[in-house]
TrEMBL record:
One Pfam assignment: NTE_Ploop
Residues covered by the PNPLA domain: 90-256
SUPFAM superfamilies from the UniProt entry: FabD/lysophospholipase-like (SSF52151)
PROSITE patterns in the record: PNPLA
Protein name: Patatin-like phospholipase domain-containing protein 7
Motif (GXSXG): 121-125
Domain of life: Eukaryota
Keyword Ligase recorded: no
Enzyme active site: S123, D243
Primary location class: membrane
GO-annotated biological processes: lipid catabolic process
InterPro entries: Acyl_Trfase/lysoPLipase (IPR016035), NTE (IPR050301), NTE1_P-loop_dom (IPR056556), PNPLA_dom (IPR002641)
């Protein structure tokens, strides 16, 4: 009946799960049978939701429940914020190993009592965001992110994955295996928190926003740095997908278009280092290697391939980034991580701690200045009060 209805209102499917039960699975089957669904949400519910009680008993039970202050982190609070247009989005930018700082910031975010209703990211941000959306636990996020980061430091794995560099230096098999081991067969539709990530479609020369499908594949696609990894072939249409940082490195605007009232955007992209060595018209890698190995040689500052790629990605997104930073819906955060290189995943603990300390400072300022209170305020109630004030 709804499928043939002329009503254009968006229809959301709410799936209830026991809070002590297994994680969501097979959501795509529910959605495929309901083509009229525009969005879906997973809710972890306490036992009382599934209990069979008489109406008087239910009324008595919920009267006691309503006497307590609402838990802003509960799934029902998230549902209420999404349905009323008050959703808070967390947007995580790309930047290689600097993205490890996002782990610390998310811990500080949780400690500050700021809920997350939608999460999205680009490149390393797509990985960190997916980990959080799957477990909703900053402690589990840290453990899993650290394990993956330590794998990224393995020289042996990199050497085995080297290939003849027609398309890329590495075949991608080792990197694929690492991402696949993290997410297994998880689908984006099965994540607890609504999630999206960004890739660059070089077949259609367009930005792609992924909200469904194989999680590990689209995370991998969003992290596919040109020259290092080959593009990933989209299993849906065969299009070639590359790192999302080439087209939108901090997609707060996408979160806004998906209904977020406010987007907390964490930027870990490359910043321009201007004090670089002038090496002339050509550059020998052997000369650079000698400079690095010889303790008596004068140090030179030359960008490596990963840094050049991330800088190119950042340059392409400068205008979009400035637009996001100046918008009224975005709360922009830039941790002090410029001294860390793109592939320094071995410094995970140090970088994560930098993010945590910076996050604590920022969120404390937000709390004292009323930013957090404004985030949590019902925008409809705020608009009503503004209208009343103007009429008076």
């Amino acid at each position: 009946m709804l499928e043939g209805s002329a009503v254009r209102a968006q229809k959301q499917l709410v799936l209830l799960h026991r809070e002590d039960g297994p994680a969501p699975k097979g959501t795509v089957d529910w959605l495929n049978m309901r083509s009229w669904i525009s969005r879906h949400l997973h809710l972890a519910c306490p036992r009382r939701v599934f209990s069979k009680r008489s109406q008087p008993k239910l009324l008595e039970l919920y009267q006691r429940v309503f006497e307590k202050p609402a838990d802003r982190h509960s799934d029902f609070s998230r549902l209420a914020r999404i349905l009323t247009g008050n959703a808070i989005a967390l947007v995580l930018g790309g930047g290689g190993a600097r993205g490890c700082s996002q782990v610390g910031i998310m811990r500080a975010l949780c400690e500050a009592g700021i809920p997350v209703d939608l999460i999205g990211g680009t490149s390393i941000g797509s990985l960190m965001g997916a980990l959080y959306a799957e477990d909703r636990s900053h402690s589990r996020l840290r453990i899993r992110a650290r394990e993956w980061a330590m794998e990224m430091t393995s020289v042996f794995r990199k050497v085995l994955d080297l290939t003849y560099p027609i398309t890329s230096m590495f075949s991608g098999a080792s990197f694929n295996s690492g991402i696949n081991n993290v997410f297994k067969s998880k689908q984006i539709e099965d994540l607890w928190i609504p999630y999206f990530n960004i890739t660059t479609d070089i077949t259609a020369s367009a930005m792609r926003v992924h909200t469904d499908g194989s999680l590990w594949r689209y995370v991998r696609a969003s992290m596919s740095l040109s020259g290092y990894l080959p593009p990933l072939c989209d299993p849906k249409d065969g299009h070639l997908l590359m790192d999302g940082g080439y087209i939108n490195n901090l997609p707060a605007d996408v979160a806004r278009s998906m209904g977020a009232k406010v987007a907390i955007a964490i930027d870990v992209g490359s910043r321009d280092e201007t004090n670089l060595t002038n090496y002339g018209d050509s550059l020998s890698g052997w000369w650079l290697l000698w400079k690095r190995l010889n303790p008596l040689a004068e140090k030179v500052k030359v960008l490596n391939m990963a840094e050049i790629q991330t800088r190119l990605a950042y340059v392409c997104c400068v205008r979009q980034l400035e637009s996001v930073k100046s918008s009224d819906y975005c709360e922009y955060i830039r941790p002090p991580i410029d001294r860390y290189r793109t592939l320094e995943f071995g410094k995970f603990d140090e970088i994560a701690e930098v993010g945590y300390q910076h996050g604590k400072t920022v969120f404390d300022v937000w709390r004292r200045s009323g930013v957090v209170e404004k985030m949590l305020k019902d925008r409809h109630q705020e608009e009503f009060h503004n209208t009343q004030s103007r009429s008076n």
